[in-house]
């Protein structure tokens, strides 16, 4: 069997074919991009079932709105990924963030990204490490869980067992302190 030469795939042309109701073009787009799109959605919503649902909804939207794609504004692939990203963000806005994450998954994530361990991995003389170590332990934990662990304020409040407002205040004040310390 001869080796197949891969030519550059024109996402924009496939999207325009979808506008003409070409189901094969949509299938080709799906086969090429769905796995990566699920990864993008998964990073945002942190639940595989929701990520898969978001990608499905995105492809329905791609099919329905293909005629609105304008290649002069950007690539077809970027347009598709913007739909997935916006759909995932809409899901988060429409639901409580805490409902999107299974507690078991959250515990595993936080255990993997132990905040003290992350800080200790920074070089001893690193300004960020020095400044983080100056923060009180719960404030340091909230900042590291938010920025290194990717947790929302609600998730951090649940993990640390403190009110949501407290977490928001800790993070805001800690960022001000870090900014001053790093200056």
Automatic annotation (TrEMBL):
The answer to whether UniProt assigns keyword Iron to this entry is: no
Q: Domain RNA polymerase sigma factor 70 region 4 type, which positions?
A: 126-175
- Outline the extent of the RNA polymerase sigma-70 region domain: 29-97
Record carries keyword Transcription regulation: yes
Q: Which InterPro entries match?
A: RNA_pol_sigma-70-like (IPR039425), RNA_pol_sigma-70_dom (IPR014284), RNA_pol_sigma70_r2 (IPR007627), RNA_pol_sigma70_r4_t2 (IPR013249), RNA_pol_sigma_r2 (IPR013325), RNA_pol_sigma_r3/r4-like (IPR013324), WH-like_DNA-bd_sf (IPR036388)
Coiled-coil boundaries: none
- Report the superkingdom from the record: Bacteria
Alphabetically ordered keywords of this record: Sigma factor, Transcription, Transcription regulation
Which Pfam family, any one of them, does this sequence belong to? Sigma70_r4_2
NCBIfam families reported in the protein's UniProt record: sigma70-ECF (TIGR02937)
What family does the entry list?
Belongs to the sigma-70 factor family. ECF subfamily.
* Protein known as: Sigma-70 family RNA polymerase sigma factor
Please report the organism this UniProt entry assigns to the protein: Flaviflagellibacter deserti
């Amino acid at each position: 069997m001869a080796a197949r030469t891969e030519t550059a795939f024109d996402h924009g042309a496939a999207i325009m074919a979808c506008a003409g109701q070409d189901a094969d073009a949509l299938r080709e787009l799906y086969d090429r991009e769905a796995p990566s799109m699920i990864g993008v959605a998964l990073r945002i919503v942190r639940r595989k079932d929701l990520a898969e649902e978001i990608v499905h909804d995105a492809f329905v939207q791609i099919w329905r709105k293909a005629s609105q794609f304008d290649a002069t504004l950007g690539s077809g692939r970027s347009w598709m990924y913007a739909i997935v990203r916006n759909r995932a963000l809409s899901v988060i806005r429409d639901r409580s963030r805490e409902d999107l994450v299974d507690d078991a998954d959250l515990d595993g994530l936080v255990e993997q990204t132990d905040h003290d361990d992350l800080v200790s991995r920074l070089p001893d003389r690193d300004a960020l490490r020095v400044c983080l170590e100056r923060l009180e332990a719960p404030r340091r934990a909230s900042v590291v869980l938010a920025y290194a662990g990717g947790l929302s304020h609600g998730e951090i409040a649940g993990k640390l067992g403190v009110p949501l407002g407290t977490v928001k205040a800790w993070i805001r004040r800690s960022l001000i302190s870090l900014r001053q310390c790093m200056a």
